[in-house]
Here is the input.
Amino acid sequence: MGRLERIVFFGTPSFAVPTLKALAEAGRKPVLVVTQPSRPAGRGRRLQLPPVGELAQELEVPLLQPHRVKKPDFLDTIRSLEPDVAVVVAFGQIFPLSLLKIPLNGCLNLHASLLPAYRGAAPIQAAIAAGDVETGVSTMVMEKGLDSGPVLLQRSLPIGDKETSGELAPRLAQLGADLMVQTLEELEQGSLVPQAQPEEGVSYAGRIQKEEGRIDWNLTASQIFCRLRAFSPWPGIFSELRGETVKVLFAEPMVCLHQETPGSYVGLEDGRMKVVCGGGTVLGIEKLQRPGRKALDAKDFSNGERLETGERFGGLS
Here is the structure.
Protein backbone atom coordinates (compact mmCIF):
# COMPACT_ATOMS: atom_id res chain seq x y z
CA MET A 1 0.00 0.00 0.00
CA GLY A 2 1.33 3.43 -0.95
CA ARG A 3 1.18 6.56 1.18
CA LEU A 4 -2.33 7.47 2.30
CA GLU A 5 -2.23 11.10 1.25
CA ARG A 6 -5.80 11.99 0.41
CA ILE A 7 -7.63 11.76 3.73
CA VAL A 8 -11.20 12.83 4.42
CA PHE A 9 -11.79 13.36 8.14
CA PHE A 10 -15.22 12.90 9.76
CA GLY A 11 -15.67 14.08 13.36
CA THR A 12 -17.71 16.42 15.53
CA PRO A 13 -17.11 16.81 19.30
CA SER A 14 -14.03 17.71 21.29
CA PHE A 15 -13.16 14.00 21.55
CA ALA A 16 -12.32 14.05 17.83
CA VAL A 17 -10.14 17.18 17.96
CA PRO A 18 -6.87 15.52 19.08
CA THR A 19 -7.00 13.08 16.17
CA LEU A 20 -7.48 15.83 13.58
CA LYS A 21 -4.68 17.80 15.19
CA ALA A 22 -2.38 14.77 15.27
CA LEU A 23 -3.01 14.07 11.59
CA ALA A 24 -2.07 17.64 10.69
CA GLU A 25 1.06 17.53 12.85
CA ALA A 26 2.09 14.25 11.22
CA GLY A 27 1.94 15.80 7.77
CA ARG A 28 -1.41 14.20 7.02
CA LYS A 29 -3.66 17.23 6.81
CA PRO A 30 -7.01 16.08 5.35
CA VAL A 31 -8.22 17.29 1.97
CA LEU A 32 -11.65 17.75 3.56
CA VAL A 33 -13.17 17.80 7.06
CA VAL A 34 -16.81 16.78 7.51
CA THR A 35 -18.64 17.67 10.71
CA GLN A 36 -22.22 17.96 11.94
CA PRO A 37 -24.25 21.11 11.23
CA SER A 38 -23.77 24.07 13.58
CA ARG A 39 -26.24 24.23 16.48
CA PRO A 40 -27.69 27.16 18.45
CA ALA A 41 -25.78 27.71 21.71
CA GLY A 42 -25.54 30.19 24.57
CA ARG A 43 -28.00 32.82 25.68
CA GLY A 44 -28.16 34.40 22.25
CA ARG A 45 -28.82 31.00 20.62
CA ARG A 46 -26.30 31.82 17.93
CA LEU A 47 -25.15 29.04 15.63
CA GLN A 48 -21.91 27.54 16.91
CA LEU A 49 -19.49 25.39 14.97
CA PRO A 50 -18.69 21.99 16.48
CA PRO A 51 -15.16 21.77 17.95
CA VAL A 52 -13.89 19.86 14.93
CA GLY A 53 -15.23 22.56 12.62
CA GLU A 54 -13.40 25.24 14.58
CA LEU A 55 -10.09 23.37 14.27
CA ALA A 56 -10.68 22.78 10.56
CA GLN A 57 -10.98 26.52 10.06
CA GLU A 58 -7.76 27.11 12.03
CA LEU A 59 -6.01 24.55 9.85
CA GLU A 60 -7.52 26.14 6.72
CA VAL A 61 -8.96 22.81 5.60
CA PRO A 62 -12.17 22.81 3.50
CA LEU A 63 -15.20 22.06 5.66
CA LEU A 64 -18.60 20.49 4.93
CA GLN A 65 -21.55 20.16 7.34
CA PRO A 66 -24.11 17.88 5.70
CA HIS A 67 -27.41 17.16 7.42
CA ARG A 68 -27.37 13.68 5.89
CA VAL A 69 -24.26 11.93 4.57
CA LYS A 70 -26.42 9.61 2.49
CA LYS A 71 -27.60 12.44 0.21
CA PRO A 72 -26.48 11.90 -3.44
CA ASP A 73 -24.92 15.36 -3.81
CA PHE A 74 -22.73 14.82 -0.75
CA LEU A 75 -21.66 11.37 -1.95
CA ASP A 76 -20.78 12.86 -5.33
CA THR A 77 -18.61 15.46 -3.62
CA ILE A 78 -16.68 12.78 -1.72
CA ARG A 79 -16.25 10.70 -4.88
CA SER A 80 -14.83 13.70 -6.72
CA LEU A 81 -12.05 13.95 -4.12
CA GLU A 82 -10.94 10.36 -4.81
CA PRO A 83 -9.91 9.82 -1.16
CA ASP A 84 -7.35 7.19 -0.23
CA VAL A 85 -9.00 6.71 3.17
CA ALA A 86 -11.58 8.22 5.49
CA VAL A 87 -10.78 8.70 9.18
CA VAL A 88 -13.88 8.77 11.40
CA VAL A 89 -13.98 9.83 15.06
CA ALA A 90 -17.28 10.38 16.90
CA PHE A 91 -18.94 11.84 13.82
CA GLY A 92 -22.55 11.26 14.82
CA GLN A 93 -24.22 9.90 11.69
CA ILE A 94 -24.57 6.36 10.38
CA PHE A 95 -22.58 5.75 7.20
CA PRO A 96 -24.49 4.15 4.32
CA LEU A 97 -22.76 1.40 2.38
CA SER A 98 -22.47 3.77 -0.58
CA LEU A 99 -20.22 6.04 1.50
CA LEU A 100 -18.21 3.23 3.04
CA LYS A 101 -17.23 2.04 -0.43
CA ILE A 102 -15.89 5.37 -1.71
CA PRO A 103 -12.41 5.65 -0.10
CA LEU A 104 -9.89 3.43 -1.89
CA ASN A 105 -8.70 1.88 1.38
CA GLY A 106 -11.95 2.09 3.32
CA CYS A 107 -13.16 4.07 6.32
CA LEU A 108 -11.18 3.78 9.55
CA ASN A 109 -12.93 4.48 12.84
CA LEU A 110 -11.51 5.31 16.26
CA HIS A 111 -13.71 3.85 18.99
CA ALA A 112 -13.33 4.57 22.72
CA SER A 113 -13.41 1.00 24.00
CA LEU A 114 -11.56 -2.27 23.73
CA LEU A 115 -13.82 -3.82 21.13
CA PRO A 116 -15.93 -5.93 21.02
CA ALA A 117 -16.92 -4.44 24.40
CA TYR A 118 -19.18 -1.39 24.44
CA ARG A 119 -20.06 -0.91 20.81
CA GLY A 120 -22.25 2.14 20.33
CA ALA A 121 -22.53 5.79 21.29
CA ALA A 122 -21.46 5.88 24.95
CA PRO A 123 -18.57 3.46 25.59
CA ILE A 124 -16.76 5.71 28.09
CA GLN A 125 -19.79 6.08 30.34
CA ALA A 126 -20.61 2.39 30.04
CA ALA A 127 -17.14 1.28 31.17
CA ILE A 128 -17.21 3.49 34.26
CA ALA A 129 -20.82 2.63 35.13
CA ALA A 130 -19.91 -1.06 34.98
CA GLY A 131 -17.10 -0.52 37.48
CA ASP A 132 -14.37 -1.50 35.01
CA VAL A 133 -10.80 -0.79 36.09
CA GLU A 134 -9.46 -0.69 32.53
CA THR A 135 -10.61 0.57 29.15
CA GLY A 136 -8.96 1.73 25.96
CA VAL A 137 -9.29 2.66 22.31
CA SER A 138 -9.54 0.66 19.10
CA THR A 139 -9.03 1.48 15.44
CA MET A 140 -11.18 -0.56 13.11
CA VAL A 141 -12.30 -0.90 9.50
CA MET A 142 -15.89 0.28 9.26
CA GLU A 143 -18.58 -1.95 7.83
CA LYS A 144 -22.36 -1.74 7.75
CA GLY A 145 -22.82 -3.15 11.28
CA LEU A 146 -22.58 -1.02 14.43
CA ASP A 147 -18.88 -0.89 15.41
CA SER A 148 -18.57 -4.51 14.31
CA GLY A 149 -15.78 -4.20 11.74
CA PRO A 150 -12.33 -5.81 11.89
CA VAL A 151 -10.00 -4.33 14.51
CA LEU A 152 -6.62 -2.93 13.44
CA LEU A 153 -4.93 -1.76 16.66
CA GLN A 154 -5.86 -1.39 20.31
CA ARG A 155 -4.33 0.36 23.28
CA SER A 156 -5.49 0.19 26.90
CA LEU A 157 -5.25 2.39 29.98
CA PRO A 158 -6.42 2.11 33.61
CA ILE A 159 -9.49 3.93 34.89
CA GLY A 160 -8.85 5.92 38.06
CA ASP A 161 -10.76 4.92 41.21
CA LYS A 162 -12.62 8.23 41.24
CA GLU A 163 -12.27 9.20 37.59
CA THR A 164 -15.34 10.61 35.84
CA SER A 165 -16.31 10.38 32.18
CA GLY A 166 -15.39 14.03 31.79
CA GLU A 167 -11.88 13.29 33.06
CA LEU A 168 -11.38 10.01 31.22
CA ALA A 169 -12.56 11.19 27.78
CA PRO A 170 -9.63 13.59 27.09
CA ARG A 171 -7.12 10.89 28.06
CA LEU A 172 -8.74 8.42 25.70
CA ALA A 173 -8.97 11.06 22.96
CA GLN A 174 -5.23 11.69 23.05
CA LEU A 175 -4.44 7.98 23.25
CA GLY A 176 -6.70 7.41 20.26
CA ALA A 177 -5.13 10.24 18.27
CA ASP A 178 -1.70 8.66 18.59
CA LEU A 179 -3.13 5.25 17.76
CA MET A 180 -4.80 6.49 14.57
CA VAL A 181 -1.54 7.99 13.29
CA GLN A 182 0.21 4.70 14.10
CA THR A 183 -2.56 2.79 12.31
CA LEU A 184 -2.09 4.78 9.10
CA GLU A 185 1.69 4.31 9.26
CA GLU A 186 1.43 0.56 9.75
CA LEU A 187 -1.18 0.22 7.00
CA GLU A 188 1.22 1.94 4.59
CA GLN A 189 3.98 -0.43 5.65
CA GLY A 190 1.72 -3.43 5.06
CA SER A 191 2.29 -4.69 8.61
CA LEU A 192 -1.35 -4.59 9.77
CA VAL A 193 -3.75 -7.48 9.36
CA PRO A 194 -7.37 -6.66 10.29
CA GLN A 195 -8.68 -9.04 12.96
CA ALA A 196 -12.35 -10.01 13.01
CA GLN A 197 -14.02 -9.22 16.32
CA PRO A 198 -14.86 -12.31 18.40
CA GLU A 199 -18.51 -13.01 19.07
CA GLU A 200 -17.73 -13.59 22.73
CA GLY A 201 -17.56 -10.42 24.80
CA VAL A 202 -19.80 -8.28 22.61
CA SER A 203 -21.70 -5.60 24.52
CA TYR A 204 -23.49 -2.38 23.61
CA ALA A 205 -23.50 1.13 25.04
CA GLY A 206 -26.47 3.09 23.73
CA ARG A 207 -26.77 6.86 23.72
CA ILE A 208 -27.25 8.20 27.25
CA GLN A 209 -30.71 9.50 28.12
CA LYS A 210 -31.27 12.03 30.91
CA GLU A 211 -33.58 9.67 32.78
CA GLU A 212 -30.70 7.22 33.25
CA GLY A 213 -29.36 9.62 35.86
CA ARG A 214 -32.29 8.88 38.18
CA ILE A 215 -30.91 7.04 41.20
CA ASP A 216 -32.15 3.53 41.94
CA TRP A 217 -31.46 3.21 45.66
CA ASN A 218 -31.80 -0.57 45.39
CA LEU A 219 -28.36 -0.60 43.76
CA THR A 220 -25.38 -0.83 46.10
CA ALA A 221 -23.53 2.32 47.14
CA SER A 222 -20.58 1.30 44.95
CA GLN A 223 -22.85 0.87 41.92
CA ILE A 224 -24.42 4.29 42.47
CA PHE A 225 -20.96 5.82 42.90
CA CYS A 226 -19.91 4.32 39.55
CA ARG A 227 -22.97 5.82 37.90
CA LEU A 228 -22.23 9.21 39.47
CA ARG A 229 -18.76 9.09 37.89
CA ALA A 230 -20.10 7.77 34.59
CA PHE A 231 -22.75 10.48 34.26
CA SER A 232 -20.47 13.37 35.15
CA PRO A 233 -20.67 15.94 33.63
CA TRP A 234 -23.99 14.87 32.02
CA PRO A 235 -26.70 14.02 32.93
CA GLY A 236 -25.50 13.69 36.51
CA ILE A 237 -27.44 11.63 39.06
CA PHE A 238 -30.56 12.81 40.82
CA SER A 239 -33.45 11.71 42.99
CA GLU A 240 -36.55 13.12 44.66
CA LEU A 241 -36.78 14.31 48.23
CA ARG A 242 -40.02 15.68 49.60
CA GLY A 243 -41.46 15.62 46.10
CA GLU A 244 -38.77 17.83 44.56
CA THR A 245 -35.74 16.86 42.51
CA VAL A 246 -32.31 17.04 44.07
CA LYS A 247 -29.04 16.45 42.24
CA VAL A 248 -26.23 14.56 43.95
CA LEU A 249 -22.96 16.24 42.94
CA PHE A 250 -20.37 14.48 45.09
CA ALA A 251 -20.67 11.24 47.03
CA GLU A 252 -18.74 8.09 47.94
CA PRO A 253 -19.53 4.73 49.49
CA MET A 254 -19.04 4.60 53.25
CA VAL A 255 -17.61 1.73 55.27
CA CYS A 256 -20.72 0.93 57.26
CA LEU A 257 -23.98 -1.00 56.94
CA HIS A 258 -27.60 -0.11 57.82
CA GLN A 259 -30.71 -2.24 57.56
CA GLU A 260 -33.20 0.54 56.80
CA THR A 261 -35.15 0.65 53.54
CA PRO A 262 -33.02 1.74 50.53
CA GLY A 263 -33.27 5.50 50.07
CA SER A 264 -33.52 6.20 53.80
CA TYR A 265 -31.58 9.10 55.28
CA VAL A 266 -29.86 7.93 58.47
CA GLY A 267 -27.99 11.04 59.61
CA LEU A 268 -24.77 12.99 59.17
CA GLU A 269 -21.26 11.63 59.69
CA ASP A 270 -17.96 13.32 58.86
CA GLY A 271 -19.80 16.00 56.92
CA ARG A 272 -21.66 13.49 54.78
CA MET A 273 -25.34 12.64 54.57
CA LYS A 274 -25.71 8.90 54.97
CA VAL A 275 -28.30 7.32 52.68
CA VAL A 276 -28.97 3.58 52.73
CA CYS A 277 -28.60 1.69 49.44
CA GLY A 278 -29.06 -1.89 48.31
CA GLY A 279 -27.61 -4.64 50.48
CA GLY A 280 -27.48 -2.31 53.45
CA THR A 281 -24.59 -0.36 51.97
CA VAL A 282 -24.40 3.38 52.59
CA LEU A 283 -23.69 6.27 50.25
CA GLY A 284 -22.08 9.29 51.87
CA ILE A 285 -23.34 12.38 50.04
CA GLU A 286 -21.04 15.39 50.24
CA LYS A 287 -22.73 17.97 48.00
CA LEU A 288 -26.28 18.39 46.62
CA GLN A 289 -28.23 20.91 44.60
CA ARG A 290 -31.90 21.78 44.17
CA PRO A 291 -32.98 23.01 40.71
CA GLY A 292 -32.24 26.70 40.22
CA ARG A 293 -30.39 27.00 43.52
CA LYS A 294 -26.73 26.98 44.47
CA ALA A 295 -24.93 23.77 45.38
CA LEU A 296 -24.68 23.07 49.12
CA ASP A 297 -22.48 20.81 51.16
CA ALA A 298 -24.27 18.04 53.03
CA LYS A 299 -24.36 19.73 56.43
CA ASP A 300 -25.80 23.00 55.12
CA PHE A 301 -28.33 21.14 52.98
CA SER A 302 -29.44 18.94 55.85
CA ASN A 303 -29.74 21.85 58.25
CA GLY A 304 -31.49 24.08 55.72
CA GLU A 305 -34.06 21.43 54.88
CA ARG A 306 -34.31 20.29 58.52
CA LEU A 307 -34.00 16.69 57.44
CA GLU A 308 -35.05 14.05 59.92
CA THR A 309 -33.64 10.55 60.23
CA GLY A 310 -35.83 8.08 58.40
CA GLU A 311 -36.89 10.40 55.57
CA ARG A 312 -36.59 8.74 52.19
CA PHE A 313 -35.23 9.72 48.85
CA GLY A 314 -37.40 8.61 45.91
CA GLY A 315 -36.44 7.13 42.57
CA LEU A 316 -36.98 3.52 43.62
CA SER A 317 -37.38 1.07 40.76
Remarks:
- The chain has eight helices and 15 strands.
- The radius of gyration is 23 Å.
